[in-house]
Amino acid sequence: MTTRCAIITGITGQDGWYLSQLLLRQGYKVIGTTRDLRGADGQTHSGVDVVQWDMKDEAALAALLQTVRPTEIYNFAAYASGAAMYEEPVGIGDINGLAVARILEAIRSTNPSIRFCQASSSELFGEPLESPQCENTAFRPRSPYGAAKLYAHEMVGIYRRRHGLFAVSAILFNHESPRRGSAFVTGKVAEAAAHIKTGLAQELILGNLDARRDWGFSGDYVRAMWLMLQAPTADDYVLATGQSHSVRELCDVAFKRVGLDYRYYVQEGEDAFRPTEIVPLAGDASKARERLRWAPEIDFASMVNMMVDAELERLDQTNDKPR
Ligand SMILES: Nc1nc2c(ncn2[C@@H]2O[C@H](COP(=O)(O)OP(=O)(O)O[C@H]3O[C@H](CO)[C@@H](O)[C@H](O)[C@@H]3O)[C@@H](O)[C@H]2O)c(=O)[nH]1
Fold first, then answer.
1. Which Pfam family, just one, is annotated for this protein (predicted)?
2. Would the CB of 198 count as within 6 Å of ligand 1?
3. N or C: which terminus of the chain has fewer CB atoms within 10 Å of its end residue's CB?
């Protein structure tokens, strides 16, 4: 059997990490791309061949495809959402949107049999008219991030229909892990719980504690994306747990893990405050459950506990801990 080879863009992110581990276990050759090799320290030691690729450079990608001859490509590279995205709408449009057209063109011109998976987002739904959201829910993005991701999402469908590519989009609801940074609320809360427990911090200022999200575990979601590329037909899928939780519940679980009551330490503040979503984001992943036989294995509390434990372990390995 020929060796399967996958390219993962955005290899330094949490999804890049979990997917690369899954693929390496299955005997794939894994090439990870990043815009800055300095951010990829350590990844080369875990069996991934990390290369630099500027997502604006279509010719460089075509050359890479001709050299490494991948059978699958997963596109995880993107600007993150969050308040900063309003400062960089053009850059977001280019990287989160146009770059996907560049990848599809490179596939079409070099080897149309390469299977392609795009990391789409529940931000496509924006202000949804129904809850939970499924593949047929109308897309109403309300941010530069969501608008750019919608362009990419539609281009994947267009290349599938027009050019017959095996190109699919995973409509990913929030998914987290110990590799999530503190710019995201789960990472911020897990880090703060560990810091407060060990005396490194005294309080945590968050945005809206009543905001709700459907939070899953990154490792589960990359497995689903791999299944999407092994399926007999190319199709898009919502990946979600179906359970929505508030930021308040997130704090409750995380602080309980370290034996504390979050109500004594957590406050709402203006800086991280975003307007409350009118309809809470919660995904209906029935299609993935039925057709891919996929189900998330890690539930909300286990994932939050895992993140807090990882933060405690990180502190344990550093010298500045006052414990
Ligand atoms: N980041 C952050 N969010 C906070 C805070 N306090 C409350 N929140 C609320 O927590 C929720 C989750 O915010 P994030 O963790 O920043 O994630 P996100 O904006 O939902 O985006 C993530 O999920 C999307 C999929 O739905 C992804 O597309 C996106 O890239 C990212 O992974 C939002 O409702 C936000 O208002 C805070 O201090 N910081």
1. GDP_Man_Dehyd
2. no
3. N
pLDDT tens-place string over residues 12-64: 999 999 999 999 999 999 999 998 887 666 555 579 999 999 999 999 999 99
Just list the catalytic residues.
Answer: 121, 123, 145
Please report the beta strands in the chain, taking only residues with DSSP state E, as ranges in sequence order: 5-9, 29-34, 49-52, 72-75, 115-121, 167-172, 175-176, 204-206, 212-213, 216-217, 237-239, 245-246, 266-268
Atom of ligand 1 nearest to the CA of 123: 26
Instruction: Measure 274 CA to ligand 1 centroid, in angstroms.
Output: 9
Structural domains in the chain, sorted by start: 5-175+218-239 (3.40.50.720), 178-213+243-281+298-317 (3.90.25.10)
Q: Is 95 in the pocket of ligand 1 (CB under 6 A)?
A: no
DSSP letter assigned to residue 255? H
The reported pLDDT for the residue numbered 41 is 61
115 lines ligand 1 (CB under 6 A): no
